[in-house]
Write a structure and sequence with these properties.
Layout lengths: L1 E2 L5 E5 L2 H4 L12 H7 L16 H14 L4 E5 L2 H4 L8 H16 L3 E7 L5 H5 L6 H18 L5 E6 L1 H9 L11 H23 L5 E7 L3 E3 L1 H20 L5 H7 L10 H5 L5 E5 L4 E4 L17 E2 L16 H13 L5 E5 L8 E2 L2 E2 L2 H19 L4 E7 L18 E3 L6 E3 L1 H12 L1 E2 L1
Parallel strand pairs: 2-3, 2-14, 3-4, 4-5, 5-6, 6-8, 7-9, 8-11, 11-14
Antiparallel strand pairs: 1-17, 9-10, 12-13, 15-16
Helix pairs in contact: 3-5, 7-9, 8-9, 13-14, 14-15
The protein binds beta-D-fucopyranose.
Beta-D-fucopyranose binds next to loops.
Length: 441
């Protein structure tokens, strides 16, 4: 029996575009994901994030469900185009939704953990150049201030940007995410401006409230031949961790990225590297890579053109992602030992498997096993001295899984997207027991 420290947060994570739907309600503006998903061929099943899980209209019932499951925390994101439809001008009705959500959570004794940016950039800002433009970082800081003015009195935990690597490289280099551009130089500039936006948003929030703020990164253990490991660890992990925690971009990664240069101006690294109160870690899998791979499509990021994924014969989820829970322990231990001490939260961890509804129940044993192994792996990290404060399962609800559409399910709660009926899966019942008992049985 592995018991967790008292006060440990047990939650689920979601993101606005993936669950809310209601993309034109109450003055919400267009985001890059509305535009992208509308273009033929961008999303596997041809759908958009509307209606998703219709959470915008079902929020009180969804919060009640979290409470019935005994969860004591919830990580959600705010849709910037709801709060500022043109990216700049405040839409009070959009902000009101998150105000109601926060109050609903608090009424149920659930700690809110808010993420300001989970990839839904207002389309008008993309029309002015998007994240490759420095201006977008300033607009993001303004938006952070608007949100903090309204919510920071009640939200104790903040994340500025979710997974800047995805927003920059999937959005602007490989183009598999919105806005779907294939321009490596733009991706490198976007990575820097997402980090700058983070640093400016930290300042904006701190100037308004004494609350805890950090960033959420998708980090990976990287395995393979030495040069491939150095490069991919550099692009995927150190390109973000080093400026955030050490105050500089790693020289070898800057070299790998040539001819694309990071558009750093005087003072930027100080803004990016200002101390944070927490780091959110999203972990799903490792990267096994090789510079002599089997010829399958390479990783398609600037600086990694000659490196590909390789298979290690491990079990995989339905997305083909390798399952190795020890990777989570190793990652948390690495962060605690190589980077300045900061409280860590697992902000996302979960698995995609196809589910079958049988007699009104979903026996998702593979997902349950994945979660159980990873929660144990988190406990092993705690036992090794890592300052881990919470675990957020991805995700509360089945949802719109970006370019995969609705066919890829990660929820602890099954959603029938026709009727919007919710069914707690076996994994959800199991997780409820863990959260209530603060231990893994
Ligand atoms: C992460 C995203 C999240 C979800 C999971 C499966 O990269 O942050 O929105 O799509 O992957």
């Amino acid at each position: 029996m592995s018991t967790f420290p008292s006060g440990f947060l047990w939650g689920t994570a979601t993101s606005a575009y993936q669950i809310e739907g209601a993309t034109t309600a109450d003055g919400r503006g267009m985001s890059i994901w509305d535009t992208f998903a509308d273009e033929p061929g961008r999303v596997a099943d041809g759908h958009t994030g509307d209606p998703a899980a219709d959470h915008y209209h079902r929020m009180p019932a969804d919060v009640a469900l979290m409470s019935e499951l005994g969860l004591n925390a919830y990580r959600f994101s705010l849709a910037w185009p709801r709060v500022c439809p043109d990216g700049v001008t405040v839409n009070p009705a959009g902000l009101d939704f998150y105000d109601r959500l926060v109050d609903e959570l608090l009424t149920h004794g659930i700690t809110p953990s808010a993420t300001l940016y989970h990839w839904d950039l207002p389309q008008p800002l993309e029309d002015r150049g998007g994240w490759p433009e420095r201006e977008t970082a300033y607009r993001f800081a303004d938006y952070a201030g608007v949100v903090a003015d309204r919510l920071a009195d009640r939200v104790p935990l903040w994340t500025t940007v979710n997974e800047p690597w995805c927003a920059a490289f999937l959005g602007y280099a490989s183009g598999v995410h919105a806005p779907g551009r294939r321009d490596p130089g733009a991706a490198v500039a976007a990575a820097h401006h997402l980090l700058l936006g983070h640093g400016l948003a930290v300042q904006a929030i701190r100037s308004r409230a004494a609350t805890r703020v950090g960033i959420t990164l998708n980090l990976f253990g990287v395995f393979g031949d030495a040069d491939a490991v150095r490069r991919i660890d550099g692009l995927q992990n150190r390109l973000f961790l080093d400026p955030l925690f050490r105050g500089f971009y790693p020289a070898d990664v800057l070299d790998d990225l040539l001819p694309y240069a990071i558009p750093v101006r005087d003072g930027d690294v100080e803004i990016i590297g200002a101390p944070m109160d927490l780091l959110g870690v999203n972990f799903y899998r490792d990267h096994a890579v090789s510079s002599a791979w089997d010829g399958s499509p390479n990783l398609d990021w600037p600086g990694s053109e000659h490196i590909g994924h390789v298979r290690r014969g491990l079990p995989v989820t339905d997305l083909g992602w390798e399952i190795r829970a020890a990777g989570l322990t190793e990652l948390l231990v690495r962060l605690a030992s190589e980077y300045p001490t900061v409280p860590l939260y697992v902000h996302e961890n979960g698995a995609c498997f196809a589910d079958v509804v049988m007699d009104g129940a979903v026996h998702d044993h593979a997902r349950l096993a994945y979660l159980s192994d990873h929660v144990r792996a988190a406990h092993t990290a705690l036992a090794a001295g890592v300052d881990l404060r919470g675990y957020f399962a991805w995700s509360l609800l089945d949802n719109f899984e970006w370019s995969e559409g609705y066919g890829r399910r990660f929820g602890l709660v099954h959603v029938d997207f026709e009727t919007q009926r919710r069914i707690v899966k076996a994994s959800g019942e199991w997780y409820s027991e863990v959260a209530r008992g603060n231990r893994v049985p």
